[in-house]
Write a structure and sequence with these properties.
By secondary structure, the chain is of the alpha+beta class. Helix content is 49%, strand content 13%. The strands form five sheets. The protein has a five-stranded mixed sheet. Helix 1 packs across helix 5, helix 3 runs antiparallel to helix 9 and helix 9 packs antiparallel against helix 10.
């Protein structure tokens, strides 16, 4: 067994694993009504979906850091020996699913000495520097290894050294054992579940895991995106926020020119995650109210005549479900300073969108629900300390969900392709677009009576109050960088200010126009398909202002949480996992 030296002190571990700093998010309970109302076949299928999802953890850990699994084994063995520091480190490891993470104050957490963050994560050799990476690719192209380079810069490959070159291995080969186990359980679930369409999707997804054929992924994605009236939810997600190495190739002038000459588009690696849940019909009905408005929203996107959108003005290939979460694993379950409230998939780089497939929004009920007395008390303390009193009446936690609905739908609007050229800024700009679209289109939804004037005010105030962070993020945190950019932009435009008591003051009349202006600028950046334009826009707006620092200090005084941990009692029961 490989040995490691723990990086955090006993004092630091005790703090980070305390109830104040490590906040539990509880998914569906063992004997919950949602589970009890399922038919016997769906209950049996759910067990196999949980087993499949659990195995995805091993895939993600290898993608995240090559040492993750050895380190976890070491921690488990040390914990059995009574090593208290190892027990606490293992608790943090399981929460963030990895040995390197970030907390809510943008601090990097390194659980093992000598193991830092890697731009290429586990997708690339851990000793591969950015300059060496670029030079090897240049030499490979000049040596005629065009297909090999194309595979290396593909989203579905792991990369290893091959003599003086690099070699790409498709996920289905690299993770053959794990994917075989997942596929087997999906195939069993497909014989048990009560829904024909869901079963068809599970079979297609199982096939896609067993063969290195992107078209099989596309067929599975296409079917998944059509699912609407199913009792169960299962997703294997593939998103690209972790890999910071692939996108750097366009920053090397010589390499970028060679890639363009050979028609090679670099696409960042997919981190694999899994979601298992039970579809909440009441919540889903509410979501579907907005679906009829999507073609109209597409018509109102800035410069909509200059690009193709995933949703056009005639057809809204978009399904959406609200889901009670049984478990989130792999990339889905990593609690690293936060965890996702919802997803809009497949992303624009996925083949399914080119064969007539649509997109699907899935919302995580248990992640957004926080109405315990403790949560309510903390929320009020935060409002008292940061938000001007006259706006308290408009603050509504449910409005954050409405905002998220808009955010996820706007991912399907705007330019459908070409954003890969923005490199490491692509995700920051896309997330920024989704946020601003959610606000900018509120006036359209108000006219359509999707929201009342009161609800629009609630969305605007809740957004403004929640958009200040506890600490300045790093550029690698796309979701948080865009938050800083927006706060600066709204402060510059006077839509948001701090009053004489350093409380957030909101000019409600300026909020939507400001969002429209920023959205238009963002779309122009995406249409430029130019790295320098994207970099200039991000860096001009990613500025931590005095106002942000004032609010961040207040937030740190009120909220001591640094990270969170998922509790999955129903999933643990179904999989026979020992939670002691």
């Amino acid at each position: 067994m490989k040995t490691f030296e723990l990086n955090l002190t006993s004092e630091e571990l005790t703090k980070r694993t305390s109830k104040d700093c490590l906040i539990p998010k509880v998914m569906l309970e063992k004997d919950c009504e949602e589970y009890n109302l399922l038919c016997d076949g769906d209950k049996k299928a759910l067990k196999h979906l949980v087993l499949a999802a659990n195995k995805i953890d091993e895939v993600f850990m290898k993608q995240d850091n090559a040492a993750n699994i050895d380190f976890k084994t070491f921690l488990e063995e040390e914990s059995k020996k009574g090593n208290e520091d190892a027990k606490m480190t293992l608790k943090l490891f399981n929460a963030q699913i990895g040995m390197v993470a970030v907390d809510s104050e943008a601090n990097k957490i390194y659980l093992a000495k000598g193991y830092g963050d890697l731009p290429g994560k586990g997708f690339y050799p851990n000793d591969l520097t950015t300059d060496e990476f670029h030079n090897i690719l240049i030499d490979m192209i000049k040596s005629g290894k065009i297909k090999e380079v194309e595979d290396i810069l593909n989203q579905r490959t792991m990369v290893i050294r091959d003599g003086k070159w690099l070699k790409a291995i498709d996920f289905t080969e690299f993770f053959k054992d794990e994917f075989s186990y997942v596929a087997q359980n999906l195939q069993i679930a497909a014989t048990l579940s009560s829904n024909k369409d869901f079963n068809e999707y599970l079979k297609l997804q199982a096939d896609a895991l067993m063969e290195a054929d992107p078209m099989l992924d596309a067929k599975a994605d296409k079917k998944w995106a059509e699912l609407q009236d199913t009792p169960l939810e299962f997703t294997i997600s593939r998103e690209q926020y972790a890999d910071e190495l692939t996108g750097t190739v366009i920053e090397n002038a010589e390499l970028s020119a060679l890639l363009n000459k050979n028609n090679i588009t670099p696409i960042s690696k997919d981190s694999i995650g899994a979601r298992v849940g039970i579809v909440n019909k009441k919540g889903t009905e509410k979501l579907l109210e907005i679906k009829k408005h999507l073609p109209l929203l597409a018509k109102n996107m800035p410069y909509n005549d200059e690009y193709e959108q995933n949703i056009n003005t005639e057809d809204d290939k978009q399904t959406m479900v609200d889901v009670d979460i049984v478990t989130l694993r792999g990339d889905e379950g990593t609690y690293r300073g936060g965890i996702t409230l919802a997803q809009n998939l497949p992303n624009n780089d996925k083949l399914s969108l080119t064969i007539g497939g649509g997109r699907r929004n899935v919302y995580h009920r248990q992640i957004r629900t926080s109405n315990t007395p403790e949560a309510i008390e903390k929320r009020q303390k935060r409002l008292n300390a940061t938000l001007k009193k006259e706006f308290h009446k408009y603050y509504n936690p449910e409005a954050d969900h409405w905002f998220t609905i808009g955010h996820e739908n706007v991912h399907s609007l705007g330019p459908k392709s070409g954003t890969e050229a923005l490199g490491k800024y692509k995700n920051i700009i896309e997330e920024n677009k989704a946020d601003m679209g959610s606000l900018a289109l509120l006036d359209i939804l108000l006219k359509q009576e999707m929201y009342t004037e009161e609800e629009v005010k609630q969305i605007l105030v809740t957004y403004a109050a929640d958009n200040f962070l506890k600490a300045r993020p790093t550029l690698s945190q796309a979701h948080r960088v865009r938050t800083v950019m927006q706060s600066k932009y709204f402060l510059d435009k006077g839509a948001i200010t701090l009053d004489e008591n350093n409380l957030i003051n909101i000019n409600l009349e300026k909020m939507i126009p400001t969002a429209k202006q920023m959205l238009a600028e963002i779309i122009k950046v995406q249409l430029s398909q130019d790295f320098n334009t994207g970099e200039k826009y991000v860096l001009e707006n990613f500025i931590w202002t005095d106002e942000m620092e004032i609010i961040s200090k207040k937030l740190k005084e009120i909220d001591k949480s640094l990270n969170g941990i998922l509790k999955t009692p129903l999933a643990d029961e179904l999989s026979g996992k020992n939670t002691n």
